[in-house]
Amino acid sequence: MAHIPHRTPTAAALVLLGVTGIAMTTAAAAPPTPAPSDTPQAFTATVTRVSPDRLRHSWRRGCPVGPGDLRMISMTYWGFDDRPHMGELVVNRSVAEEVVSVFRKLYGQRFPIRQMQPVDAYKGSDDASMAADNTSAFNCRRVETSGSWSQHAYGLAIDVNPRLNPYIHPYPGGTVAPPNAKNYVRRPLDRPGVINPGDDVVNAFKKIGWGWGGSWSSEKDYQHFSQNGR
Fold this sequence. Notes:
This protein is an alpha+beta fold. The protein has 3 helices and 13 strands.
């Protein structure tokens, strides 16, 4: 959640890797609404530009990156109902392909995800998104404790199943966020969708050089993965 310097990402080239690959395009497009699939299917991902109207609550002038620096990933994820679903994730364009590679692995491992919607579905409220156990990435917001830009404001951080993997601050008095996650503070915890030290989720993000908030020394942010580890 610490401040990081702004990086200007390179332009993404048009890539087409077939049904199970990534379609990269510079044309603005509205991804499909997340919905369950009737039959099992292979992992698919499409990466498109994000129009400002898709970011009404999560972006504003003065944010460290603009809509042109972001990409919408529409991709398959495995649900808690043991069925494939389509979700949407907004990330920095410089990491879109790497993020897809992570979620391809998680899909193949049948790691369950509750839902995956841009935080705009919750009017930009991080608290509401966490309480709904929504996996999300970009949100132009600051770190409450420091006032610096969160890595989410750059599209360089992702929160995975945040209710099952809460943020825990030991003092003053102890904080658990979201508040409805108090049954999930212990680690290791053998429950579907929970992230534990050294597991497949941690290793998948580690493969692309991202760190996990669950490895922080004092506070723990079990939901949080980011490019520089904070």
